[in-house]
Design brief:
This protein has 116 residues and is α+β, with helices and mostly antiparallel strands. The protein contains 2 helices and 5 strands, in the order E-H-E-H-E-E-E. Strands 1-3-4 form a 3-stranded antiparallel beta sheet. Strands 2-5 form a two-stranded antiparallel ribbon. Strand 3 and strand 4 form a beta hairpin. It is elongated. About 18% of the residues have low confidence.
Length: 116
């Protein structure tokens, strides 16, 4: 109010966006990807390693829902319904964890969870 000697400070406003369920918000360990394979159940001479895509999407978070998309990771064996296997650890010294989706995995999601 004018004449009262008070001051008004204008600063950054709090973030008003809805929280992203795939971001790390603390309170738990973070995901460290050990490996991922798409189509290991299909007898193919091609590499089924898709670790890089899973790591790009989930590494360092405490919770991640990863949607498997053959268009993104490639289809090494057309005509074969491929499974998906992921291996990860939480950085708190616990043992290896697994997330999997049965054939046909493309279009399904796996959940990696290191929250406490």
């Amino acid at each position: 109010m004018p004449g009262t000697g008070g001051s008004i400070q204008i600063g950054p406003q709090p973030d008003q966006r809805a929280p992203d369920p795939n971001r790390s918000y603390g309170g738990g360990s973070t995901i460290r990807i050990l490996g991922a394979a798409y189509g290991g159940n299909c007898r193919t001479p091609f590499n089924t390693n898709v670790t890089d895509d899973l790591a790009r999407n989930c590494q360092g978070r405490d919770y991640c829902v990863y949607r498997i998309d053959a268009r993104q990771i490639g289809d090494t064996s057309p005509g074969c319904a491929k499974d998906y296997q992921a291996r990860y650890v939480c950085r708190d010294g616990e043992g290896e964890r697994h997330a999997a989706a049965g054939a046909e995995a493309s279009g399904q999601s796996v959940v990696l969870d290191c929250r406490r």
